[in-house]
Amino acid sequence: MKQQQAGLVTDRRSFLKGVVAAGGATALTTFFAARLVADDTRGTAARKSAVMASRGYHETDHIRDYYRTLKA
Amino acid sequence: MSKDSAPAVAALEPGEQARADIYRLLGALLAGPPDAILLELLCDIRPAEDATDTAMTVAWQALQRAAGDADPAQLNDEYFRLFIGLGRGELVPYASFYIHGLLMEKVLASLRGVLAGLGIERQAGVAEPEDHAAAVCEIMGMIISEHGLHLRQQAFFEDFVASWLGRFFTDLATAEGADFYRAVAQLGQQFLAVEQRYFLLPE
To answer: Are B19 and A12 in contact (CB < 8 Å)?
Structure first.
């Protein structure tokens, strides 16, 4: 029995193509990327720190220390 | 494996980026009334010619129209009436309230524990509890975006988004004081429906 029929979405990537095409998503990426650059004052991973700085969440010091000391 | 020697993080797939950004947008709109820049962005929303998700397209178009009709002063008043008020707003946008009927409840403690495990905490000076609708949306966007957190998103969605946010958007859509935010609620409702379907599909 065929798992995929014509027009039937069976995986997330295909499903999300509709979300992207519905409108707004592409413009949002540009908007939030610009805001991340503008807000980043911590010098760490730009995306995470800037988003957290804009709304109040950030990576904890002990997590950064953990990653720094983590051995392969 | 040292974080310093970890492989470079691949850029997100467009669909995943879209999910993260829509959560961020909802978070931004629920955290406060949109400024002129964000309103201008919303006014310029255009669906692609090959758009197939009718419900999402309709929701985006409603938000576009609402942004075009919005008056900044009235937006501030609307936001205040809906979410702040004198004592409380028309709505109480916290997971604790929707799940337990009271503020600062068990779900907030659970959320704080999860955030600690994810390495996320409030910055100093931020007074809002983490189970505010805006914060939950922002955190979900972060989890989708961050390579190290991406695998945690379904658990977070089930525990802290799907459990109450849909009911909140339903209340927002029918709130007496909602005008612009009725369109925000419509986008939120349709997007959560998308998310529910997304998590049922194989990766």
So the answer is: no
